[in-house]
Amino acid sequence: MLDIPTTTTDILISKISKELSIEYFPINLYLITPSLPDKEFQNVIIGQITTLISKLFPHSYTQADNIYRPLIEELYRKGMVTVDFKNWDEVLENKALTSITVSKIIHQFTERKEDKIVYEELANILKELKLRVMIKSKWNKSFKKYYLNRIANKTLEQLEIQDEIQKQLDNCDDEIENLIQLVEDNLHMSIKKNFQSDIDIKTAIICEYILGELSNE
């Protein structure tokens, strides 16, 4: 508490009292005891992951143990906080798993019905573009990266990217190869700078095209 200014303490007390709908702030505060068992907690967490996926994506196929493994390995890699901290954003970045990270891993190891349709549409488009085998592999990898980020990442930046691509798609009507190039040419530089390569831009356009077509069915 020595690192927290008095004004900040007053704000915290006010907010907590309001949240709990209490008139007087309690003298003692107690932390919730974790419900995870001391032994075999891995199996318990994997079971909870399976339950969560069943609620989020009914009738989907998931590999709960494969979801657990990268999450726990990432936590071990980041380690624990052993001292007091002042910069909360820094702690979240360096020591915690964000919702975006967790969502990406969940989607990576969860096969939903709509995913199968999306990848089938991608295969048809890549066949139409007549790409060489090695190039097609790069496009597939780039597409999957954008698609997973698109469905897991709900940040304002991601929403701006997909909204801008969708807007340009609405203004273009051509064969898929020409359509991709027209949309890319019309994208603002502020959008293009979010991608590492020209292939990444093109596969993002394909992804938004497919999702847009599916939503109109």
Task: Note down, in words, how this protein is organized.
- The protein has 217 residues and is mostly helical.
- The protein has two domains: 6-111, no CATH class; 113-216, no CATH class.
- 69% of the residues lie in helices and 2% in strands.
- It has helices at residues 6-20, 41-56, 64-78, 88-95, 99-108, 113-129, 133-152, 156-170, 176-186, 189-192, 198-216, and strands spanning 61-62, 110-111.
- The protein has a two-stranded antiparallel sheet with strand order 1-2.
- Helix 2 packs across helix 3 (64-78) and helix 3 (64-78) packs antiparallel against helix 5.
- The radius of gyration is 23 Å and the shape is globular.
- The mean pLDDT is 83.
Offer a few descriptive terms.
217 residues, mainly alpha, 2 domains, 69% helix
Summarize the structure.
Helices cover 69% and strands 2% of the residues. The protein has 217 residues and is mainly alpha-helical. The chain has 2 domains: 6-111, no CATH class; 113-216, no CATH class.
Topology:
Layout: H1 6-20, H2 41-56, E1 61-62, H3 64-78, H4 88-95, H5 99-108, E2 110-111, H6 113-129, H7 133-152, H8 156-170, H9 176-186, H10 189-192, H11 198-216
Helix pairs in contact: 2-3, 3-5, 5-7, 6-11, 7-11, 8-11, 9-11
